[in-house]
Amino acid sequence: MPDPNEAVRKLLDSLVGDGPEVGLQACAYLGGKQVINCWSGVADPESGQQVDGRSMFTVFSCSKGVTATCIHMLADRGKLDYDDPICKYWPEFAAKGKEKATIRHALTHRVGVPQTPPGVAITDWEGMTKGLAEEAPRWEPGTKSGYHGSTYGWILGEVLRRIDGRHIQQFLQEEVCRPLGIDSMYFGVPAAEEHRVGRLIDGPPLPEDATARRYLRNIMVSPQFNTSAVRQAELPAHGGIMSAAAIARHYAMLAQGGELDGTRLLSPERVRIASELQFDGVDVTLEQPVRRGLGYALGGLAGGGMDAVSGRPNAFGHSGLGGALGFADPEREFAFGITKNFMERNDPSQEQEKTASIVCRKVEQALGI
Description:
Layout: H1 4-18, E1 23-30, E2 33-44, E3 49-50, E4 57-60, H2 62-76, H3 103-107, H4 125-134, H5 151-164, H6 168-180, E5 185-186, E6 201-202, H7 222-225, H8 228-231, E7 240-242, H9 244-255, E8 259-260, E9 263-264, H10 268-274, E10 279-283, E11 288-292, E12 297-298, E13 316-319, E14 325-329, E15 334-340, E16 342-343, H11 355-367
Parallel strand pairs: 6-16
Antiparallel strand pairs: 1-2, 1-15, 2-3, 4-7, 5-7, 8-9, 10-11, 12-13, 13-14, 14-15
């Protein structure tokens, strides 16, 4: 199209204008160059603040892909092996039958600890990691894959802290964001930047008889995730706060084999290893088929959160609760990110295309790819 960015912006305007979307951002890279960056709508309906290029949103499990990149950077530097037991670096984690749980298991949701310890606030890093170390696995580590919706972040984040000495929020800023020139990607947004964060808007609750994913049924996120305490907390599995441009730039680096604009974060071989298929089967937590690499969800599976890349098995990234998405497609040197504040529901009883898929398809059409 003559003006791809304008074509995508008009689509965002229509998605907001026709509802139920409230605020949206979309960004894409092709061949290592930003080719789409647009937005529409309201970031905070209470104040009337409009979405712009500096807005950020809570992206929930999109955070997992960024956490995976941090772990792969340590592996690339020889600081860890994926098959190292977690307890090699975090001895307390060996308790109650977890001594054979490995970093590979953590990246592929096979540790067996999807549950959080009771009575611990999600804002309490020390309390959460201590509690997780003491938890008994629900299955023998490595024998099943069951989505570790929030515990993925504390487990891998604590592994990184034990190896590197820095919390993952600091590592992300110093080793990923600053080298790539990203200023809108946080695991715990600084208080001074919180005014840029969009307010989450809950969608309608699922009907009682919906055959929805159990861990998503009727979840209402806005009361908790709109608070400063949670926005500023270090939640590397499900509480990252980012812009679409930041997500797309992160994945553009991966789509280019680990280097972007002359800055290399990962070797091409590491990107290949990280995005290789590790698990293809039914997730015992989600009760649905999944395809996973090392920390990234893989394309090629119709009907999942990665619908936008269902026909591209070599694409990899991660979706987030509510409809955020980021991925890399190395074959086309393409990367995409979308953020939003209206919380889409995943209701399998409704055959409705997700906003991320609609927008990504428009981006591809506009770019002629």
